[in-house]
Every structure is written in structure tokens, then in C-alpha cells.
User: Fold these one by one.
Assistant:
Number 1:
Amino acid sequence: MEHKYEIPLLYDRHNHVGFYAALTNCLDVRHDKDYDNVIKTIKKLPNKMNLVMGWTFLDYNNEDIESLPPVLICDQMLHSFIINKKGKEILIKENAAFVENVDNSEWIEKKLPSILTLIPRIQGITEQDMVEFFYKLEENGIYSTDDMLAIDNEYVALVKNGKFANRCRLWADHETYNNLSPENKKKIAGIKIFLDGALGPETAATRGYVSGKNGLLLYSDDELQQVLTFISNERLPVAIHSVGERGIEQLLNILESSSLPIPYIRVEHAMFITEDIARRCKKANIILSMQPNFSFDSLLFKGKLTDEHLEQNNPFRMLIDKVGYAPGEDMFFSSDGMPYGVKAALESSLFPPFSGQILTLDEMVKGYCIEDKSKGTIQFNIENNKFCDLMVQISIG
Ligand SMILES: [Zn+2]
């Protein structure tokens, strides 16, 4: 049985536009799963500082890394980094602390926003890079987006004076926000904070690791209370990165006991949210900002997470059917850029690894698309429960 569908273009509410725009010209090895081949490819890079994106290998040989030209390798989740000696000699001038602590996952998590804003600065970012990247987003069915980490004053000006100003909302981490000019502060949609890390380095604060670890909370309760008070005083929305359930619990404990007036609270990722925590979130008017493409982490992290936990990742059915979260109202979907685009969005929404992760097409459209089809459409078929024949029609004036 074949069914034809047409949906509006996407609003990708969690992406890293400046970061990816700066890095469009660097080597991305995400799709090459052959370790020897990837090493061979990196070896061919020129003898200057190189950036490599999308590294997927948990194990690697140090001799191989040292045999490469100067390189900073970013893993596909952007939470762990490898720099060889030749690379360190160059980067030490830019950011000595990063070079010294590159293997210290706790330090990396605590300083992640400063690393994610440093990397595009190493590479440099032009107006042309931004325009090309936005065309790339369009080709992939994305009309508008939120960039969760504005890089610096120059970047805010670049975006907000640029062609796509109205289609790119900017968030800034606490430190970057404080360094912005008063004029640029007004152009920021809200503040982004990180409560935990990521699954790869086992710093996401969840109880489901096979190793028995339970991840890393980046703030003490007192520190988090202070940051939230600052955000409340600035009267700004806040987007809160918490992959694991422990970070959301910490947030709820503070919100429930302090009743801080914050106009809009969005939790990013929430991959391991439990039913009990979800009910508390709903009561606190917390918006859930989740990534259907992360459902495939249930396959990627086999062996690292318990079987039970793999199945509990991205529990969309529980959130919608049992707790009453409503896509498009208090639940939104996005990609975090890993990967971005309608193909991954549809595949992971409609055909994820576990049944508890399935979104209906209607739910996906409500939580992931812009309101109407006047800007363009995405057309595709579903045949024998498989998604195919994707076409993106853009009619953006
Ligand atoms: Zn992100």
C-alpha cells in the first residue's frame, strides 16, 4: 500500500547554525564507519590546523592520531574532542586551558559552551558561510531555526543584520550573554544553560549506564539557584540542557521550592525523562524540546546503556498518551543538527527503534513544522511502512 503525503517546511528549534556554518568546509567523517579509512582520509589533510567533525569511534589508537597533520577532532555528539600534539602546539595560543584539559571529560562538560563557541572562531565565519548554510537548511526542508549558542557580538550582528534574521532566533549561554553589548543582548531570545553532559563520555546525568556510573551534574543546587535567579531577574526565557533524568529532577526541586518567576522554561533533550518527572514538569509549565533523531541512540549506545534504558529513551508515547504533553503546544521537536533535515526527522519520528518512541505524522507535523504551507512543502510516500521518495518544494519569496 502506497500513501502520498505533503507537509509544511520545518522549524528546527534546536540547532547550532553558526557552528555548523563555520564548519561546512571542514572534513566530516560521520558517514564513514571504517576506522582505517577515516584515518587515511584525515592523513590527506594539509599541514595546518585542521578541524574534523563527526568522529564516531569510541576506541582509537594514539599512534594513528599522532601520525595525522595538526588536528582537532570533534566527536559526533560534540561532547568529546581529540587534539594531537601538532594540533596542541597551535591551539595552545588560542585557549591553553582547553588544550590542557581536552581529556578531562568533567572539565569539557563544564566549559562546553566556551568550546562550542571557540571552534567556529578558529575556523572563521563569514556572511557567505551563513547564506550558504541557510540554503542548505532550505534544501533539507528547514525554513526556520533556533541557534542555541550565539558565538559572540560579531556573530549576533552577522545574523541579525543578515538575510535570514527573521528565520533564526538566537540563544546564548550565560557567559556569552554577559559578554554581549547591551544592544545585542536585546536580540537574544533567551539563555541556554547546561545541567549535564552527553551519553558518549557517560556525563549525561542518568542512572542507566551498564558501568554503574550515573553521569555528571554540572551545577550544585546553590549554583543552579543563582543562575535561575539571574535569568528570572533578566526576565528572559531559558532553555535547559538535560539529557538525563537527574538534571531535570534537580531543576524541579529548585523550581518547586522557590517559585522563581521565569517567563518560559524549556528543557532540551529530556531523553530519559520518567513518567513521575514528566508529571512534575507538566505541572511546572515546562516545555519539552526533544529530538526524534536521538531515538537512534538506542541503537548507538547498545552495551553502554542497560537494555531497559535503551527502551526508555525518548518516551514519546508515555509523554503524550499518559502525561498529556501535546506536540505544538508544550512539546516541540528539533534535530540539534545531528543530523538536521527532514529525512532524518521523518524516519526517526515514524520508524524509530522502539514502539514507545513512535510519533504519528500528525504529532510530528504539529511539533516540528511551521504553521502553513505558503513557504513551501515537503512531499513523500510511505510504502509498506517505509518512508521514501522525499521531495522538498521551496516557494520562499
Ligand atoms: Zn545542542
Note: The radius of gyration is 21 Å.
Number 2:
Amino acid sequence: MARPTRLLAAALVIAALLAGCGGDGSGGGRGDALPTTTADAASNGASATTSTSSDDGSAPTTTTDTGAGAACPDDDPLAAATSVSEAALDIDGDGVDDAVGAGQVDGDWVLVAELSTGGVAIGAVSDTGGPVAVRPLGGAPIDDEPGAELVVQTGAGAAAFLVGIHRLDGCELVALQLGADAARFPVGATVTRADGVSCPPTGGLVHRSAESLDGVTFDVVEVRYVVEGDDLVEASRDTATLGPDDPGFTALARLDCGTARLG
Ligand SMILES: [Ca+2]
């Protein structure tokens, strides 16, 4: 049986984790402490982008999957949106930050990236959780295409935020899928549970899920995903048992994806 003093210590540790991830249990109030993430810059280096141009008449047209912002429309649907929030992130991979925004248009959450290579890319967040505004948080390179993937806050609960990932595909900001649904990962902690997400420099995405019976020692499952098309595919799965003195314990509930910041 766990002694009360150990439970108190565990509660203090979890409180520290919550402060570190910006979640205070109030469901995503703005201005909370930011996570202490230290990740590499989101840009993965400049990559020349090619604007498609048509020759006279019959030249075959070639389209690229990413980065061809010049081929995208200029209309910005956020011009008429409410609850707009913004972030800067190099999504098209030319080494220059793009202006990313999220807002509500006729009740639907819309993502927009004004690409430095020209034009506007648009996406949607259709599956939200909790009464919290959808927000672009920044991001990191996750797939093997040029540019960073966008981490989006898609909801929040009592002790955790929900984050999803969008990638640029042509002129669309497509939500990465996990199984049949858009991927959504919790980030946060209670006394007996912690969830965190990392974007390793080598690419892919890691979700840590930790549970505890006594609030002191946590059984951790760490799943690494890689991107195949628009899908997150499990590449490896590791388990560990961590206590407060183990390296990595205080990172269990963090969001550690490039420039992405909760709060
Ligand atoms: Ca850019």
C-alpha cells in the first residue's frame, strides 16, 4: 500500500508536470505556463520550390505534391473568420516561415497557411474535443517531404490538451490519419496518468502513454510512428517503468515538437 507521503510527493510531481505542459486542469485557459520544450528549429533547410508554368497549349503539366505554393489560390477564408489564432512555420520548406492561422467560419474550424512560395493552402479540423479553440501551435518536420508539419491544438479536457498533425499536400493542409480517423494525441497528466508527444530530429512522431497504480511509478508505453502518405503508421513500440528519479520522467507529459507550444 502506498504511504500518504509518497502520494503527496507524487501529486507534487504531477503538479509540476502540469505546470510544465501548460495544463492546469482548467481546460486550456490562455496564458498558462508554456512547456519547456527544447527542440531543433522547425525548418529542415531550404528547398527550392518550383512554380508550375504552362507553355503554350499542349505542354504536359506536372504537379508537385508539396511546396508548389505558387499554384495555390490566393483567397484567404480567414478574412471572415472568428476566433482566429496564428503561428509562423515553414510548411512549404523553402526556409522562410509561412503564416499559419486557424479560425471558425460558419461554425467550422478552418486552417490556412499563407505560403512564402505564393498562394494559400487550406485545411479543416472536423473532429474537435472540448470547448476550446482550435489553434496552430507550431511544428516540426515529421514526414520525409520538405517543410515542417503543423501541430494543431484540436481540443482539451480536464487535464490534457488534444493535438493533431497536418501536412501540406499541394494546396491542402491534410490531417494525418491514425487508423480511420484524424490522429489526435492527448498531452497532459493526472496523478495516475501522463501523455506526451515528441517529434524526434530523425523524423516521425512519438506518443508516450504512462499509467500508474500508486501515483509514483509509471508504466510507460512509447509508440513511434512514421508517415506513409497521409497515415501515421506504427514503426516501433517500447515499454518501460519510470519513477521520479529516472531520466525522462519529467518529460512524460510534454509536447516536444519543434516550435509547437501549448498554452
Ligand atoms: Ca515557407
Note: The chain has one domain: 66-256.
